[in-house]
Amino acid sequence: MLVTIRSCILNDTGFFNMVRIALITATPPSVNPGMLACEATARSFLYQADLLGQTTFFRVQGLEERSGLSPLDPRLQDIVAQCDLSITFETLKDVSQLNGLIPIFWGDFLHMNLYLKSFKPSWSTGLEDIRRLLLLEDAPMSLLNSAISYGSSFLFNSTTDYYDPLYGAALRRFISNAHHIQMRDAISAAVVSGLRLSNMNCFGLDPAQLLSMQAYLEDILGLTEIRSRSNFQPRALLFFARGKHDWEVTRPFVNDLLNSLDMKPEWLAWGDQISFPYGDDIWLDLPRVQWQISPGTSHLHNLLETIRNSSVVITDTYHLGVVSWSLGIPAILLSGDYHDQELIAKGVNVRVRHDKRKVLMGQDGLLDFYIEPYLLKAGHQAEIVKRLCRIILETPFAMNFREHLAARAQASVSHLFHAIQTISPM
To answer: What DSSP line would sit under 247-309, residue for residue?
Structure first.
């Protein structure tokens, strides 16, 4: 069901005060379709809320600079084109740019310490500049009290981060005073509820999961029909560029799975090497997906259409799995191990604490589709293949999951709509 809200708030005197929004997103490092999907759902949310014309989109760093490429590099033009969703972004450099606006922080890791430290925009003089913008450090309380954070996470925060005199203090002030918060994962949501000293439910979803709602899919892809299983082609889409895999074990497993599903594999170029630097050439023998490009459509549109026209996705990449399940296409995530470049001092891996793929699959009841290396190395391949084939081929599980996810998404955006409506006029 398409939900709309009024783009104004009734004040005590009966007059309407126009709502103006600052929508703040993370900047993709390059072609990262998961991040683009989150931007697309942000735009769709604002359109359906009748707020799009009153919204300014912000990034803390421009795409061209974030890519790290020279302006003369021929790849840059292709990257900009593939990331184009017809959204005009302004660069957020000073908190004064948010005056009179309701700041909505949308998705990704915008409040996480590791993310704040991960980039240094050319205009910034230090980390304190980033905290002022993404945690509203030192911002007027009136602005902080109107702030909304939707679909973010800080899964990779360390224990000491929360007690850091700078980051920890700013995070606690932000979380304690923000008007409305929905985190994309249950662990972050529990941390937020604790810091807010409230039993309020702060658990939302990943903004890309709004693709499960038909109204959002219609808006983003121009669709009117819900696809049935008979429309799907018997093919599997593969993309691996995140985990470190033992292909002597993993490739035979994938081949057995494909044979049991009776599906032809194709390689889906989900993202480029800048965004996904850990790809290898083990799958070069696979046929590559041939795009069915419709005039006037975006690169993201073509990717989503390709996924919708498949039967299953096999990957190690978080957002490809998220998007596939949101479209009603079962995605099998092979986690792999961690690359040496991801290891920090003493061999302690930050991401090992909470693998975001496992957290998401666990909270969504999809752990049967999350395959860790030890399961394959322990000789459980045949059992796993049999279980997956039974669920995928004999039940409408994926489409039923999408319906359940859509109901969750509907409740989530309804809470978000209500939060905007209840912000006191500034």
So the answer is: HHHHHHHHHHHHHHHT-EEEE---S-TTT-TT--STTTTSPBPPP-PPTT--HHHHHHHHHHT
